[in-house]
From TrEMBL:
It holds the Pfam family Acetyltransf_6. Gene3D superfamilies: 3.40.630.30. It comes from the Bacteria. It comes from Pontibacter diazotrophicus. This is GNAT family N-acetyltransferase. Keywords: Transferase. GO terms for molecular function: transferase activity. InterPro entries: Acyl_CoA_acyltransferase, BioF2-like_GNAT_dom. SUPFAM superfamilies: Acyl-CoA N-acyltransferases (Nat). Residues 176-295 form the BioF2-like acetyltransferase domain.
């Protein structure tokens, strides 16, 4: 298939136009070495877009690539696809809050976003949700049925001293941190992912509509193994005076960011504020460094969690979300009826 071409407009030469091939590649055709180099060197760099991360959360993922005449990758965009009832569609994977375009240039031209999304549009009739990254600025897209909504995450820049960062904590957060310290909780690093999975199953899974499939836990296990192998994942638990693990947090350290990727606590741990202590520990340990702490915040549909994360004083950052539905009318109506039911049950 012949490549599309993207018309670029460099900021240094506002009226100069040139052509850059944009290719849609199946998984087997992607040069993974080039792909990972672009992601790692891009100003937008995030661990989610590295090939070894995608291999876990979206096996057989595909990609859109912008390359020069010599075939050297200049920008990449992962495409996580799934299949249901024989139909291929795009959906954001678990444990992967952001994707989007990663380029060697800080400023990505609108034409690049348009060309990349057009490649998706040509191949998929349905995009349930595709999250770009917080550094992506999507222009108005020419397809009227393509929607760009927004969710959010929360970033805390740790470049200031701990004392300065602590002043950004809410009054309640400072109080709960003091309670955790007075409870004499101890922090221990571990390589056993099972307790945090058990906490989640016992205390959180039942509150999620539709439950949580066992495959999600298996994916987390696989992801943790890969993160350990790459030396970028650390798992911590708090332990109370009785020797019980009472909260757990998994963090990813990559590309100048600390990602708060997964956490859980049993009932007694929730009362003792173990997760507050662990987040504060990360902030304290990395204060004064050029590091961004990413809370991987939920959207407004989870107000309690959002309030908890905001109590540490982070900045709200919007995430563009691409959606469209070009399915046959009958299929579309069934899906809309199902979504109305889901929203009603969620209250």
């Amino acid at each position: 298939m012949l490549p599309h071409f993207c018309i670029l407009q460099p900021s240094s030469k506002p009226y100069h136009l040139y052509l850059m091939p944009v290719l849609y590649l199946k998984h087997a055709d992607i040069d993974l070495e080039q792909w990972n180099a672009v992601v790692a060197l891009s100003p937008q760099r995030q661990v989610y877009a590295m090939s070894w991360y995608l291999d876990v959360v979206s096996p057989d993922w595909e990609g859109v690539v912008e390359a020069d005449a010599a075939g050297i990758y200049k920008a990449v965009m992962p495409v996580p696809w799934r299949r249901k009832l024989g139909m291929r569609y795009v959906q954001q994977p678990l444990f992967c809050q952001q994707l989007g375009v990663y380029a060697l240039e800080t400023s990505i031209p609108p034409a690049t976003y348009q060309a990349f999304t057009e490649e998706i549009y040509r191949r998929f009739r349905y995009v349930a949700d595709y999250h770009f990254n917080t550094d992506n600025q999507l222009p108005t897209l020419p397809r009227p049925e393509v929607q760009v909504e927004h969710t959010l995450t929360l970033y805390l820049n740790l470049c200031s001293s701990y004392e300065q960062l602590y002043t950004g904590y809410s009054r309640d957060r400072k109080m709960n941190l003091k309670r955790a310290q007075n409870a004499a909780l101890q922090i221990e690093e571990s390589d056993d992912i099972e307790p945090i999975i058990r906490f989640f199953k016992e205390e959180t899974a039942a509150r999620i509509y539709g439950g949580v499939a066992e495959g999600a836990y298996e994916m987390l296990r696989q992801l943790y193994q890969v993160l350990k192998e790459k030396g970028v994942g650390k798992l911590y638990y708090t332990v109370d005076k009785q020797g019980r693990q009472n909260s757990g947090c998994l963090f990813i350290f990559w590309g100048g960011r600390i990602v708060y990727i997964f956490n859980a606590a049993p009932q007694h741990g929730r009362k003792q504020n173990g997760r507050t202590l662990l987040i504060d520990h990360m902030i304290r340990e990395h204060a004064g460094q050029e590091v961004l702490f990413d809370f991987e915040s939920p959207d407004e549909r989870e107000p309690d969690i959002l309030h908890f994360y905001k109590s540490f004083g982070p900045e709200v950052k919007p995430i563009p979300v691409l959606k469209y539905n070009r399915l046959p009318k009958g299929v579309k109506l069934m899906r809309e009826a199902r979504m109305r039911l889901v929203r009603r049950l969620r209250g």
